Amino acid sequence: MAASIGSLLAEISDLENPIEELEVLKTALLAIPLNALSDTVRGQRLDVIFSLLNTNDSVQIELCVDILGRVLQALSPVHLVQNCRDELKSGLTHSDDSVKILALTQIRRIVKHPEAVTEVLNNHDLLRGVIHCIEAEKISVGKEAIKALKPLSESKPGLDALFRSDLFKELKDVMATSDIVRYRIYELVVDLSSVSAISLGYCANSGFLSQLLGELTGDDVLVRATAIEMATSLAHSQHGRQYLAQQGIMDKISNMIIGADSDPFSSFYLPGLVKFFGNLAIMDSPQQVCESYPAFQNKVFEMALDPDPVMTGVALDTLGVLGSTVEGKQVLGKTGEKFKSVLLRMSQLASSGATELRVRCLEAISTLLTLQTEQQTEDLLLLTESWFRLLSDQPIDMIRNISTQPFPELHCGALRIFTAIAHQPWGQKMMLSSPGFMEYVVDRAAGPTKEAKDAKFELVGALVGSSTAATILGSQHYLRLKTYLREGPYYVTAISIVDTEGAE
User: Fold this and answer.
1) CA 250 from chain center: how many Å?
2) How far, CA to CA in Å, does 156 sit from each of 152, 164, 174?
3) How far apart are CA 143 and CA 183, in angstroms?
4) Helix ranges restricted to H, 284-325
5) pLDDT for the residue numbered 3
6) Which candidate in 16, 104, 178, 429 could, as Cys together with 144 as Cys, close a disulfide (CB 3.0–4.6 Å)?
7) pLDDT score recorded for residue 30
8) d(Cα 236, Cα 21) in Å, to the nearest integer?
């Protein structure tokens, strides 16, 4: 096989129009398992394929990229950096974006390899080319360049190369290209900072992070919105949150929420401010965040009642995040009448809002009502039951009505609410007392899609898995549920046809 690949490459090098032969070569390479391809192509004249990239023929370029993508993936990063360095460097400046992405993908493999990266760190030509790809017009090229540089954050030599060598000036020069490119550099810096406290220290000392955080209060509301998104990403790591707290960013964002009422353009960045604290609450402590920054919780409630669907949607998602933990449920429960108003609004939206908003609303309600067995204290069971009863005079019927509407996402959203309460004794009692509900649960005709069948199966599993279900529902219902569970989600009852003699 190696000989035939070699002869194909030799033949291709002599042709003016090698398209047909490239297609044959591509087919031959695809027939070889990837784990066997390395021995087959090592030592072959890959420079032939690389040289064929120097054309304006898009078909030829596409074939060469497909071939090289498979071949280079089979070669070790050390082999690549030692034998294909110049070709990869040329690929970074190619006019076709697919060639740039090919080169960046392979350079990323090199940079992630502890031995191969040493050769790159001793000579910055490849990394310089990668940095300049961040300013490419096509966003996918810029994103791939950021991915290729991120592994450098995992070692001190890599960080030194980026921030304490001639490459640092390259980063700053590229950053000055445009607003779009500036934010790609910010994205890189946030990605690097997230890896460790050490990498964050390099990024902070470089001045990039303080420049990014300074944009939070800039005049351009769209720039401000992007900066908030970056700060939220930075807050995903504990050392990132610690840095933001040290810089007073939490207080700054809280003040921005308060000041949003007097800013006619706040709708551009307000959702981002709320998402920032929502993420913070789930990663740290809902109680601490809500008590330390009451403006956040007040704004979420206000947005939930807002007629603007964008604001309402963000509020629903945030309430779902807050209510996903026991502590978050307790925080919301303490607000009393304020949260009751929000629940009433959620009930209205779930029944008659725009479809997308209804789906988000159902998701938030199911999260708020979810209470695992080990979390089921008397107080928390009373809390979730009171929330469910607030939705309607007949909440079981209300959610069931939603589940019968011809929208799969609404059907599944409603079933997830039933699954949430199926784990809880009060939920089982309400299901039993609702006429026809237990028959609905085991009715396989309700919800024909795979997603609906899976959601129904999950509901049945929740009931069967509950230690109180057999006692509350009774043996007849419980045995039917166990049979449903044993038969699986996609079981179809066989229909026998009796052949009547003489029938036409």
Assistant:
1) 24
2) 8, 11, 23
3) 11
4) 286-292, 294-304, 309-322
5) 47
6) 104
7) 84
8) 50
Helices (H) and strands (E) in the chain, counts: 34, 0
For 312, the 3-state DSSP assignment is helix
Cβ atoms 335, 302 nearer than 8 A: no
Contact 40, 25 (CB under 8 A): no
Residues of the chain with pLDDT under 70: 1-11, 13-16, 43-44, 493-504
Q: For residue 455, what are its two tokens? A: 């959601």
| Tokens 């990229």 belong to residue | 65
Closest residue by Cα to residue 171 from 159, 408, 227 = 159
3-state secondary structure of 138: coil
Categorise residue 443: left if φ over 0, alpha if ψ from -120 to 50, beta otherwise: beta
Secondary structure of residue 479 in the 3-state scheme:
helix
Task: Tell the residue number behind the tokens 């179809």, with chain if given.
Answer: 492
Q: In this structure, what token pair is assigned to residue 21?
A: 């032969």
**Amino acid letter, residue 92:** L
Give the separation between CA 128 and CA 118, rounded to whole angstroms.
Answer: 15
Measured distance CA(431)–CA(227) in Å, rounded: 48
Contact 321, 282 (CB under 8 A): yes
CA–CA dist 185, 130 (Å, integer)? 12
| CA distance linking residue 38 with residue 288, whole number of Å | 55
Secondary structure string (H, E, C) spanning 269-287: CHHHHHHHHHHHHHHCCHH
List own/partner pairs for 455-458 with CB under 8 A and 24 or more apart. 455/411, 455/412, 455/415, 455/416, 455/419, 456/415, 456/489, 457/484, 457/485, 457/488, 457/489, 458/415, 458/416, 458/419
Amino acid residing at 25: L
The CB density around residue 140, as the number of other CB atoms within 10 Å, is: 13
